[in-house]
Amino acid sequence: MNTTTRRTILGVTAVIGLYVGVWAVAFPQSFYDSFPGLGLMWISVDGPYNEHLIRDVGALYVALAAASIVAAASHRVEGGRAVGVAWLVFSIPHLTYHVAHLDGFAVGESILLIVSLSLTVVLAVPLIAPARRHERTSS
User: Fold this and answer.
1) Reported pTM
2) Buried-exposed string 11-33: b where 16+ CB fall within 10 A, e elsewhere
3) Which of 16, 39, 49, 129 is least buried, going by the fewest C-beta atoms within 10 A?
4) 77: left (phi > 0), else alpha (psi -120 to 50), else beta?
5) Distance separating alpha carbons of residues 128 and 124, to the nearest angstrom
6) Which structural domain, as residue segments, surrounds residue 17?
7) What mean pLDDT value characterizes the chain?
8) Is the distance from CB of 1 to CB of 27 less than 8 angstroms?
9) DSSP per-residue string spanning 100-137
10) What is the pLDDT of residue 120?
11) For the chain, how many structural domains are there in total?
């Protein structure tokens, strides 16, 4: 993968992390009541409000975003690879949980939820792919 593509993917993961994370850290009750926005409510369906848990998850997303930003600024493939692994380690169990717990969601909303949660998995996979020969020497 070329540097521009790697940085673009890292930029997208940073935006995702900042959107989710800043909202959850700064406004946990609002996040609980109305995430992801646009009239959808994906958090409150899953159990009672827990400010500590929501702020912790928000901080995790902000940390992933920060790592994505640092890796995007780097000229090395390894930073992006480490960030890709971190996103996968978080995103696969997160996605798996939600696939198994779709009660309370309409079919269309379930599809949207699963597609949106799959996005970070799809974005992380190319980040961990082995570098091509010219990337190993020039990036």
Assistant:
1) 0.91
2) eebbebbbebbebbbeebeebbe
3) 39
4) alpha
5) 7
6) 3-138
7) 93
8) no
9) H--TT--HHHHHHHHHHHHHHHHHHHHHHSPPPHHHHH
10) 97
11) 1
